[in-house]
Each structure stands twice: as structure tokens, then as C-alpha cells.
């Protein structure tokens, strides 16, 4: 059965590769990207609907949610794939550290705003995480944005850890209502990701791009999760690497109380920002 699949960050990289593959398989794919030029180009190539939203602006996320709800009575899959690694610490117009907002708070908000549609469809919510969550992430509840010890690497690894914790708590809260959730590590993929950063990521991608997978390969798990049937093909609440539940974890990724508290504090930050 064809699904309606919303993929954020699908104007480039693994998001665009996943969109192409899922479109070829007959699904209704919705392209979401930050760059109007890139987003429109991918959508025009495939003949698909598209929406432009900058996750560094929470009003863009709210507008995107409203547009999606107006356009699609049913959403079967929300793939929270948009994200980035940035350079020096910078605040968004909303007052949050940029990496924290783009990689965690914005997709958290989008999921929250679409929840009625997701519950009604018995949808899957997929997070593009990273293996850096295991060795580069550290959740500190009274300093979620790492204001005290910020580095680009720590900020990125921590937000990828948040993606996993969000997946586990989303499963706990909403699986009984029919929503399934999974996170995955796409592997090292040769894309433009990280090239705009002044951190070590830029040099890693420049030096190691020849050893990295093509975006099409990196997109394979996203495609598998989006097409698959939770409970049969994959298990809700699980973090996947190479198509299987990850064997190694950051110990914090398994902390159920931490996942709950991250959710509560994220909600509180958004409620405070909205007022």
C-alpha cells in the first residue's frame, strides 16, 4: 500500500536519495528543505509537492506543520531527517543554540504539532541519528545546550543522542495509540553535510570522502524503515545500525528516566518560547 511520507532535509544528501527511492516504489513523498532552490529542484525533478522551512526558525516549523496538516489528511511516515553540524556557538532568533534547535528542538516541535495526524494514521516517526551519539554525546539536564562546555563536536553528538532518547520516549508515550518510532545511524555518507562548518567535520569530510558511502546507500535504512511494517520488519523504540538493533550504545541512550525528562524539558522550553 502506498504511503504518504514526509521527509525533512530531503533537498540534498540521504534525504533526497531516500525521496527518489521511495517515489520510485510508488509512495507519495513530500519534500521538505531549507533551501528554496534545492528543494524546488528535487521536487520538480520528481514531480512531487514541496515545502520550505528553516529549522533555525521555530515559526517556520509551526508554519510547516500547519501547511502539512492542510494539505494531507493522512501522514503515514514522518522522517525527521533534517540536521546539521555547525561551527562556533551561535544562538537562533528563538534564543536557542543552533545545533540544539535544528537537530532536536525543531523536529520535536514538528512531531508534536503533527501528533493528531500521526496517531490517526498509526504512523511511523523516524529519526536520522548518528553513531557519534555513542562516543560524542553527553546529556546534561541543567545544560541541555552545553552552554558551559560547548564544542561543535559535543553539540552534534549530544543532539544525535537526543534523537535516540526522543525515539524511546515517543514510543513509550504513543505506541499504545498506534504510533511507532525508530532511530538509525546512516553510516558515513559522502554528502555536503558538514562542509559549511568550520569545525573538524569539514576536514573529516574533505579527507575521508573517498571512503564514505554514496547517499543512496546511506538512505537504505530510511527507506527500509519508511516502507516497513513496525512489529514485523522492525521494532518500535529501537535504534538501528546497519539494519539491525545497535549492539553498542552510549549508556545514557538506555536511560528511560533521562528520556522522559528530556521530553518534559523540551516541552517546557517550547512552551516558554511560545509565550
From TrEMBL:
SUPFAM superfamilies assigned to the protein according to its UniProt record, in alphabetical order: NAD(P)-binding Rossmann-fold domains (SSF51735)
Keywords, sorted A to Z: Oxidoreductase
Listed Pfam families: adh_short
Classification via InterPro entries: NAD(P)-bd_dom_sf, SDR_fam
Designated name of the protein: SDR family NAD(P)-dependent oxidoreductase
Lineage of producing organism: Bacteria, Bacillati, Actinomycetota, Actinomycetes, Pseudonocardiales
